[in-house]
Amino acid sequence: MKRFKKILLVLNMTVILLATSMSFVFAAEPGNTTLSSGCTLSPGKTTSVPLFIQNNDSGTHSYNVTAGGMTNNYELYFASGGAPAKAIEVQPGTNAEIDLNISMKGTPSADTDQLTVTTIRDDGKESSVNLTVAVNKDYALSISNMLNKIDTLSGKSTEVTFSVTNNGTKELSSVKLEPELPYKWIAGQSSDTGINLKPGETGTLKMNIDVPSSQTAGNFTAKFAATSNETKSDQISIPVTVKTSSNIAYWMIGALLVIAVFTAVQFKRHGRR
Fold it and tell me: What pLDDT score was predicted for residue 262?
């Protein structure tokens, strides 16, 4: 009998331990986030950092992902399977990858930066990790233009001049302009091969913008960036006002009519002298 009681006592203790263990597993933080400790980022380049979200819960959960707390100015977006995504669904007992794509905007103020990536589960539970970003200043390129706006005619070509500067510590090769123009507009560069720039050196690049004759009058935006074999600058925008030749003809006809009316009135008042 005593032996039987001992067996029951051992069984009860085992059940209690198992129940405690099970409750600990389910009570533990169900979503963990891990990623590489850091990355090196060059101005003009985009770096992708893998982020793994683990769901240790018994049910499927959705996780919203955000990033913040950095000193430098970055362009950030998350992607899952190559497509932009702000949230990701993770099956129970598995992990899923979401990639943080990061690129530099402007001139960095800190050579070594840190940002915080936070996941918020659909039940409100949060998890955060820190990512160290080391800025590579070997290659840096900037672009500027003296024009505040461009005025042109449909069917005509306009030349625009840009200054490009090597802000890095190493030479840049084949520096060219990369335009982003409205539909059917054509851009032609003064140098197809580009120019080379030593550290601290500034060069000049010219581009012809051809506006098709079918373009209606209006206000548009042309965007330009400088690229080299090593890096890419930030993009700048220039407002473009397009006038059509028909509009000018109308203005000329209107001016002639005004002159004719004025002459007729004067002739009627004073008569022929």
Answer: 62
